[in-house]
Every structure is written in C-alpha cells, then in structure tokens.
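Q: For a teaching session next week I want to show students how multiple molecules come together into a single three-dimensional assembly. I've collected the sequence lines for a complex. Could you give me the predicted structure tokens for the whole thing so I can convert them for display?
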Amino acid sequence: MKLSRRIILTTSAIIVVMGLLTIFALQALVKSALKSYLVSRGVSLTETIAENIINPYLDGNLLVIDRALAAVKNRTADLEYAFLFDPDQRILLSTFEDGFPPDLLQKTIVPAGETTQVLLLRTETSQVRDIGLYLIPGLPAQLHLGFSEETIQHSLGQVGMVIAFLTLVGVTVGSVASLTISSFITRPLEVLSSMATRIGQGDLNQEILVKSKDEVGQLAESFNQMTRRLRETIKRLQDSEAELKRREELMGQLLAKAMRAQEDERKRIARELHDETSQSLAALVLGLKVAATVVKSDPERAEKTLEQMKNSAVNIVKELHNVVYDLRPTLLDDRGLIPALTWYAESRLKPQGVILHIEAAGDPTQLSPEAETILYRIGQEAISNVYRHARAKNLWLSLKVKSEEAVLSIRDDGRGFNPKTVFSSEKSPLGLLGIQERASLLQGQVSFWSQPGHGTLVSTTLPLAPSIKPAPPKA
Amino acid sequence: MRKNLWLSASTILLFFVLAIIVARAWSEKPVPVRLSQRVENPSLPLPSPDKDVFYFGFDRRLEPREDVKMYLSFLRYLERSTGYHFALHITPKNASIVEELGQGKVQFAAIGTLSYLEAHDRYGVRVLVKGLTEEKKGTYRGMIITQPNSPLRSLPDLKGKTFAFGARNSTQGHLIPRILLFEAGIRLSDLAAFEYTGSHFEAANAVISGRYDAGGIQDTLARELAKKGLVRILATSPCFPSSTISANAQVDPQVIEKVRQALLAFDPLGKDQEGLYHWEQSEMPAGFTTATDEDYAEARHWALRLGLLEPGPFSPEGKSNR
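A: Of course. Below is the structure for the complete assembly, covering every listed component.
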C-alpha cells in the first residue's frame, strides 16, 4: 500500500478511535455530572418543600400541602410527580390525577433506617429519578418527588451528536492534513526513488534539487553527496582501469619489445657469429688445412699461413669478446656501474666525436646488484638514444650515491625533443617508457627534461631501500 | 504487516466491547414502574403494632416542626437510657393531649402545668419530673410582651386592648398571663379582643406583627425576642412550677420508675448534649428534677379560680370530697 494512503488511513483510524473514546468518556462525564447535579438539586428541592410542609402537615392543613405540591409541579419543568405518604401507610396527597400508580407506592418507599432515598425508575415513557425522604427523621411521613431524566438523555444526545459531528470533521480535516503532509514526505521520496533507479541504471549525472532544510532536504542532500562520491569513485575506478589497461598495453609492448630486443640481440649475435665469427672460423679452418697440407712441402708458406691464422684467431677472440661484452659487460660485475657506463658510452659515442664528461660521487658499493643492473640498462638506453637521435657534441654522465638514494643523470646538448609531443603521440616512446618501467621495479622515479634545440636530461632516482608498491611514472 | 494490522484492529475492537460491558455493568439499573396504572386510595399493609412502643406526646410550644424535632431527639436519649422503644405522637389540632394522655393513647407526655392539672384531676395522670430552667430551677415564669415601640407601659394599660394567648392549656401562655392580668385588675371582658393562638410562637408572632397589642408567652422565648429587639417585656410573673413529664396512670410502675430515673439523670448541658435538637428552646433546658402533685397546689388554686380547671375525680378537692 502506498505510504500516503497508509498515513491517511492511520490518521483517520486514530481520529475515529479518539473520537469514539471521547464520546464515551464525555458522555460518561457529562452523565455523571448531570446526574450529580440533578440529584443534588432534586434532594435540595425535596428537602426545601419538606421543610415548608412539615408545619401544615403537623397541623393537618392538607389543603396548604396540596397547593404547595401543585405549585412546585407547575414551576418545575422536569418534575413528573410529587406525593406525600403518611404513617397510616397510605397516600395522603399526590399530583397524580385519576388515582395513584400502586407500583410507585410499593417500590419507592424509603426503608426504615434511612432518611433519604434516590431511586432511578424506568416508566413506560422515560426514566424518572424518585427522591424520597422523611419529613422529619423519626416521623414515618415521607415526601417523594419524581424528576424526569429526559434532560440528561437530551443533553447526552446533544453531546454525542456534537462529538460525532466533530469527529467527522476531524476525520475529514485529518485526512486532508495527512494527505498534504504525506505528500510533503512521499513526493521527495518518489523523486529519491526514481533517482535511485537511475543510479542503478548507471546515470550518475543528475542531482536532486534541494528545496528544504528539513529531514527530507537533508536526505536529498545526502543522496546528492552519495551520487557525487559514486561518480568520483567510478571515475577514479575508470581512470585506474584505463591506467591499468595502458600499463598492461605498455607491459605488453615492453614485453614484445623485450622479446623483439631479445630476438634482435640473438639475431645480431647470430648474424655476427654467422657473418663474422663463423666466417672467420671457417677461414681459420681452411688456413689450418692449407698449412697442414703445405707444412712438409712448403714450410715457409705454412709458417706464413699459420701466422695469418694466429692473427685471425686473435680477431675471432676479439669479436667474441665484443659480442659477450655487448650482452653484459663484465666491467659491471668486476668494476661497477660507472666504469661499465663509461665503457658503453665510449664504445658508442666516441666514434661520433661526442665528448664524455663522467662524474661520480658517494659509495657505489652501496648499490645492490639489481640497482646496478637497472641503472646500467637505463644508462645504456639513454646513451643509445643520444647515439641514435641526439646529434650531440657533449654528454654529461653523473652518478651520486647518497645514504638513502642513488641519482643517475645523463644530459646531452643535442637537438632535444618536445616531451608533450613525444609522450602523447600514438607511437609510444618505448625506450623512454622502458626506462620508467625499469626504475619503477625498484620504486625509483625517472624525470625527463628536453626542449628542442636545448638537449635532453634523463634523471633517475632509485631509493636504496625500496618499498613494495611501485611509484607512479613522472614525465 | 497485515497480521499486525489485524491484531491492532482486534485489540481496539475488544477494548471497546469491554468498555461498553463495563460501562453497562457500572451504570445504574432502573427499577421498572408502571405509572399509567392508577388505583384509588392505594395503601400498603399496615405493619403490626409494636406492643413494646411507648407513645410520647407533648404540648405545643414552638412551631410544630421545631417541637417535633426537639422531642424526637430527646426520645432517642430515653430509648438509649431505658432500653424501651418510644414513638412521638403529634396531637392533632382538633384533639387534646390531656385526653390522649388520660385515655392512654399516649403513655408519656411533656405537658405544662395547666395540662397536667387537668390530666391529673380528670384521669389520675401522674407527674414524674419537672423541668429545670437555665438557672437550674424547677420553676419558670410567664411574661407579657408588647411591640417595642408600643405606648403600653404597664398591665393596666391593657384595658381595651387586644391580647394574644398561647395554647388554651398552656401555663406560661394562658394561665400565668391570666393571673398577671387578674392581679392587674383586668378581666377577659376588659380586653377589646383576645385569641388563643395555639403556641408561644404564634402568640409572639401575633404581637410582633401588630395584630395584637400584647401577648402572653414563655419567659425564655420572651427574653430571646426582647434581646433581638422584636418585643418589649411588659410584665414578668412570679415563679411557678415548670412543665412536667407525666405518665398515664396505667403504665407499669416499674417502667415509670425506670423512665423517671432516666429523666432525672438527663444532662442536656453535659454528657447528653450530643444529638439533642435545640433543647435550649425547651422548657427544661437544664434537665429535670423531682416533682410531686403538691408542687402544683397554687397553680391549681388559680386555675380553679380563673375557671381554667374543673374539679375532677382525681383532684385533691374531689378526693377529699369522696
């Protein structure tokens, strides 16, 4: 059932119940009060008349008594009858015409031992209250007056009608009021309900217009706040999801690049081994065969050939050495990061005529093997970028190892680039992103600075005691 | 929810039903009476007469209502003291307490001197006790009163004036005023008019209202009215023996003696005050003292002289003559 209907029904029920209770209570109160008043008035009137007729009665002046009773009956609207009962057990005088009701005589006589008696009688037409008393306590003569209770019934009827009418008015007014009040409550609730439905369907962009400052207004405002927070939370989740997707993509790309790089490296190694080393080895084998063939017939030629083979073997060893060094320089494990990076920079950039400026501070032995490797690869990537793109004349490489962090900076004075353009382009700068990814493995941070025509700076900060969560990338 | 609604509705309905039942139970149950049925002279069976009841009569002194209330309260004392049942008898206006006492319609009566004399001389009624006045004396006086601004200054001034007596058989209301008038040389024929009003109260009313120039009433009422400025006392009599409580000659002597003792023990100013109705307005406000017929000799003499008493078979003269 709708809330408004429930409110109306409840209010109406309460009003009806209270109305009925009021009718009962008021009727009982009014009846009791009226009864008390009428009895008290009746007794008082009877006593007064008794006082006035005692002397005539004792003097035997029945006519005086008769006139007195007739007068009081005429002047008292609700007096049904009056009679005087004397010691001879008979009705001496009464206001009844054409005889006397024997029922009244038998049922209303005040018993001995009591001075006054108030009895409620039910006659053929109405209820009558008989008030009987001894003229003088001790004398058997009794005076009885009968008062009609129609006044009470009439008054009670009026009271009941008025209250019933008021109850009806109350129900009507109450229903209208509760309808109005309930609409103040239910209309906002309906709006909130429809809002909740829209939110459930995913529409978080609408807000409820708050018009009041009462509880309903507060509820609406709370609803709006909840909607806003939901919106923000969902946006954050969406952003996080997008970021996660992007990182997954990047990871995928990095993985692909790593695999490609790995494959390229293998290809390069295979190619070098195939193109150069295996050729060199084949030539060596051939030379050795020739030398073996002519060693007896032409020892001089054999010696020359062996000398050539020896030089070939030395070159092969150098070639193999270069292949291995390119994979992972032993310098890194033997002598540390700066020598390794210096060697790599010299091997790549010196042939281009780039002047190297190397600077180191702090104790590099504090670096863990993982940190050294990551910094080496970052440096390797940065130097490769300078080699490939920068057209620089100078390269500054600096490593500062402090107690809590290590900072590797590589700056060139090459042609530079626009970071916004590079990072927002469709082609992700995998090399730079790879630097970020590597640094984030040890909760490090990488910052890039570059301006066209003003060179590039890549600065990597690695904490020496990294936390578990990866740090966000910094551009 | 629906269950709760039904439960609430049922509870409310049950409450109303209970309330109606209780209200009906507590309300008065009217007695059915048929007023439309009429009979002529209906009556109830008379209860069998109580043989152990002694009827007590009285001389009217004040207004009947006050006399009745006063003696009713006194009879309650007698019942308590003697253990006998007493009922008050009101002598109709056309009857005589003397005859009722003499004939045994009442067994005891509070009667004045004149009534006692008549009752004794005619019927042999016996005096038990006489009343004690406020001064605790067994005598009282009668007074003649007039209006406060009346020109009457002495009894002889009453010649040619109108006079209101009390009851014909009243001592203070008739005998004593007659004695005072007689001693002042005024006979009834010297009065312009006179009336026996029936009581001290009526006689006082007759004078206060101006219907009569003077009247004869009991001393206590006269003093009370004079104090209020309603009358002026014209003359005061000497003392005469006060009113009596007398008994019919046929009453058992044991009963008489018991009643006498109770009367002599009556202390209306002390222990027996509670329950009495204006006993101070009676002719025995302080109780009773012993009395004999000899106490009333002078009163008898005057009554006979003034023609207010006829000798009877029990009068001393009659006895001596027998």
